[in-house]
Every structure is written in C-alpha cells, then in structure tokens.
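task queued by scheduler; priority normal; single chain, no ligands, no partner chains; default sampling; output format set to structure tokens
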Amino acid sequence: MWESYIVRIFRRNRQEPNQVAGTVERVESEETTSFHSPNDLLDLLHLTRRKPDAPEPEDK
C-alpha cells in the first residue's frame, strides 16, 4: 500500500545543510508533524536505513 505525504520546508540554511525545518502531513490521516533536521524528515517518512540484518518493520 502506498502512503502519501505533503512535505513543507520552511527554512533551510545553505551553508549548514543539516539546518532545515518544516512539516510532514500524512494525507490519509491529515496528521501533521514538524521536523528540524534531515534525519527527522527521513524518520517521519520511514526512510531511515536499517542494518542489513535488522528485521523488516511491521506494517500498521
């Protein structure tokens, strides 16, 4: 099943790429969550890399 998101980036520092802020909205639930770093954004989109031997995450 595909998940849909709306990502809004409000601030980004060109000299410091890790300084970014915005929101992620889950379209289906209309839930909005803020993020303050690229890693936060990847976590919200469930795109963080897993270790090769880590189990697959369970779908909810």
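post-processing summary
- The beta strands are 5-12, 20-26, 31-35.
- The chain is about 10% helix and 35% strand.
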